[in-house]
Write a structure and sequence with these properties.
The structure is a single chain. By secondary structure, this protein is α+β, with helices and mostly antiparallel strands. It has one domain: Beta Barrel (Hypothetical Protein Pfu-838710-001). The strands form two sheets. It has an eight-stranded antiparallel beta barrel, surrounded by four helices. A two-stranded antiparallel ribbon has the order 1-2. Strand 10 and strand 11 form a beta hairpin. The longest helix has 13 residues.
C-alpha cells in the first residue's frame, strides 16, 4: 500500500504529494530480494576523473520514465555493461538545483512551445562533494544538448563572473533572471566507456517554488537518461528498453517542476500526458516487473 497522500488542484494535476514513513524504494521487493545497496555493490566502480570518452558535455539524450519498483531489477540487468560512479564510498549522489528564469518564465515557455535553440540556467550543488557550478544548457536546432559551466567558490565578487558567463553563453544580461524553483533528487550514475555513453537514474525527486511555501515530492518513479555522442540503439540500456517495449519520453525535470508548482498561472498543455503518467505512478501500488534480456 502506498505511503503517501495526493492532494489535487482544481485542474486535477498532482499538486502536493507528501511522503510518510519509508519511501517506496525501500519497500520494493524483487525476485532476488536484494536491497538496492547490495545491487549497486555488484557494479565495478569509477571515480570522477576516470572517464575520457563519456563526459559528454555535447550530446544527445534519450529519457525514459519508469515506476520506482522497476529500479532494482533494472540494475541487476545492467551491471555487466556499466560501471558506477563512486564518491567517498557512496554509490548514490545527492543533487540540489536552483533554476533561474525571467519574471514571465520565458525559458519555460520556450520549452513548452517546442522552440529549439532554447536554454536552461541553474546553479547545481553536489552535496556529497560540497561543490557547486553555474550551468547553462542549450538545446540547439539539431536537438543536441550542449552544457557549459563554471565552478562557484562562494567568494565575494563572484556575481560579476556569473554575469559575464551568462552574457557569453546566452547573449543576455543576468539581471533578467531570478530563481524560479529549487529541486533535488538522488542519482545513480553509470557509464559505458567503450561505447562513450552515460546513464543516469534519478529518483526521489522534489520541487519547491520560489517563495519556499509550496513543495512537491515525487517518490513513485525514476528517470533514466541515456547520454550519447550520437544516438545509437546499440546501447545495452536502449536494447534492454526495446526488448521490454519501453520507449523514450519527452521529459524535462525543470519544466515538470514548473508545471506542478505554477499550473494555475502558466500553460502546461504540452506536459499533461507526462503529468498524468506521473500521477498514476504515484498512486499505484508497486508493480511486479522483471526485465527480459
Amino acid at each position: 500500500m502506498n505511503n503517501f497522500l495526493i492532494h489535487r488542484s482544481e485542474s486535477g494535476l498532482l499538486k502536493k504529494p507528501f511522503v510518510h514513513g519509508k519511501s517506496r524504494l525501500e519497500q520494493t521487493n524483487t525476485v532476488t530480494d536484494k536491497s538496492l545497496s547490495k545491487v549497486l555493490n555488484e557494479f565495478s566502480s569509477h571515480g570522477l576523473n576516470d572517464l575520457n570518452n563519456a563526459k559528454l558535455m555535447n550530446r544527445v539524450d534519450s529519457k525514459f520514465i519508469l515506476p520506482i519498483s522497476f529500479l532494482p531489477d533494472l540494475l541487476l540487468q545492467l551491471n555487466s555493461f556499466y560501471s558506477i560512479l563512486e564518491i567517498n564510498g557512496k554509490r548514490t549522489s545527492h543533487y540540489h538545483n536552483q533554476y533561474f528564469d525571467t519574471p514571465d518564465m520565458a525559458l519555460y515557455r520556450a520549452h513548452h512551445n517546442g522552440k529549439l535553440n532554447r536554454y536552461k540556467v541553474r546553479r547545481r550543488h553536489y552535496l556529497d562533494t560540497n561543490t557547486a557550478f553555474l550551468e547553462v544548457k542549450l538545446k540547439n536546432n539539431q536537438k543536441r544538448t550542449i552544457k557549459t559551466r563554471i565552478k562557484l567558490s562562494g567568494q565575494t565578487g563572484e556575481h560579476a563572473l556569473c554575469s559575464q558567463f551568462i552574457q557569453e553563453q546566452m547573449g543576455t544580461t543576468s539581471n533578467n533572471l531570478d530563481i524560479s524553483q529549487q529541486s533535488g533528487y538522488q542519482r545513480i550514475a553509470l557509464a559505458n566507456e567503450a561505447q562513450a555513453e552515460r546513464l543516469t537514474l534519478d529518483f526521489d525527486l522534489w520541487y519547491q517554488n520560489r517563495r519556499g511555501n509550496n513543495k512537491v515530492t515525487l517518490p513513485g518513479f525514476f528517470i533514466a537518461e541515456l547520454k550519447q555522442v550520437k544516438k545509437s540503439k546499440r546501447s545495452p540500456f536502449y536494447q534492454l528498453m526495446s526488448a521490454n517495449n519501453i520507449f523514450p519520453s519527452a521529459f524535462s525535470k525543470y519544466c515538470i517542476g514548473c508545471a506542478l508548482l505554477y499550473n494555475s498561472s502558466i500553460k502546461t498543455n504540452r506536459f499533461k500526458p507526462i503529468l498524468s503518467q506521473l500521477e498514476k505512478y504515484n498512486q499505484n501500488q508497486a508493480i511486479s516487473f522483471h526485465f527480459i534480456l
